[in-house]
């Protein structure tokens, strides 16, 4: 028996492709884009996933990637070659022959020594690690340096920062869940508990993006979640977005002491805007926490918001003080390098296309307020007032520099 076709979807119609003209992107200039390995920085991410390299190659640009750059994120050299990128040995060719260098970490002194004049550098900035000598050398080379942390959309959102903060928030809870296990020296608790056994209590300091995604993940585990912040509107926002499934409180000393002492997990996610993170938890309070409790200080790269926190590494991620396990690795997204690389590529590639489609970097900046916001060094000048204040240096506004056509 033959089944009748669904009306309007007969096989003779459904299998016939409908032709439609597709506009092919053609870059106005051919950029040589270099992607170095981040292995010397103990960084597992790579700035571009193979699919992103393929998009840029298809748009007429050349991609050179250092051999092994994607290995830690499980992207093989073959995948990059198949995408049209040229795989090269050593960083010297990357820096010496590229118009634009795209990387995750800010450049080290040995990398800056390989850079050439008037290159475009796109990377993270890491305010805690940058030095005036690095800025001065970039200025001497008349490099255009664009920092991930500064790239902003018209509504003020920081798309690359937000993406990494979402990962950091989720990873903080994922990490805490492992550290709570008896085999890791923790209290031997499951975050979500089971029938007849109550869940663990997770206290999150900060209701921003990191705090929100930490709360989402902790709720997904089934934990009891408390969020503290000094900003009442941020607490209202997180209550609304999470359908009032979290308990919120103002981060005054009394509430912080009470919540942290009873917590099984504390997530430090309180960030300062261009400044050091505020220290909300004193050593005295940490000393009164339960043995085997866990602190994951996500904002340790800004100084941390727990007094007993100090930076740790991927090789030695934890230490114990007052019986409390501290995890203070500055770069949590690196632990999920493949996911983080895809996330970074998703946001970064359109900006690189903007630069490539413009006749020059000057034109690209003129037409893109987002890239203007990201630029901190431009052809011999420091463009960020915050950096100038930090290091006692002079600066000039990026809009005036672009308009002058330097």
Please explain how this structure is put together.
The chain has 406 residues and is α/β, with parallel strands linked by helices. The protein has 2 domains: 25-157 and 336-404, Rossmann fold (3-Layer(aba) Sandwich); 168-335, NAD(P)-binding Rossmann-like Domain (Rossmann fold, 3-Layer(aba) Sandwich), CATH 3.40.50.720. Helix content is 36%, strand content 15%. The chain is built from 16 helices and 15 strands. The chain has helices at residues 11-14, 50-58, 77-82, 91-96, 109-112, 132-140, 159-179, 209-221, 232-241, 253-262, 283-287, 337-357, 361-367, 369-374, 385-391, 398-404, and strands spanning 32-35, 62-66, 86-88, 100-102, 120-123, 144-147, 201-205, 224-229, 247-250, 265-268, 294-297, 318-321, 324-327, 375-378, 381-382. The strands form 2 sheets. Strands 3-2-1-4-5-6-14-15 form an 8-stranded mixed β-sheet, sandwiched between helices. A 7-stranded mixed β-sheet has the order 9-8-7-10-11-13-12, sandwiched between helices. Helix 7 runs antiparallel to helix 12 (337-357). The longest helix has 21 residues, at 159-179. The protein is globular, with a radius of gyration of 24 Å.
Radius of gyration: 24 Å
Proportion of β residues?
A: 5-15%
How far do the termini sit from each other?
Answer: 77 Å
Q: Would you report the number of β strands?
A: 15
CATH architecture term of the largest domain: 3-Layer(aba) Sandwich
| CATH-defined superfamily of the largest domain | NAD(P)-binding Rossmann-like Domain
What would the average pLDDT be, to the nearest integer?
A: 90
Instruction: Determine the number of helices (DSSP H or I, runs of at least 4 residues).
Output: 16
Q: Strand order across the biggest sheet? A: 3-2-1-4-5-6-14-15
Instruction: Please tell me the total number of domains.
Output: 2
Shape: globular
Helical content band? 25-40%
Helix-strand makeup class: alpha/beta
Which sheet architecture does the biggest sheet show? 8 strands, mixed
CATH topology annotation of the largest domain: Rossmann fold
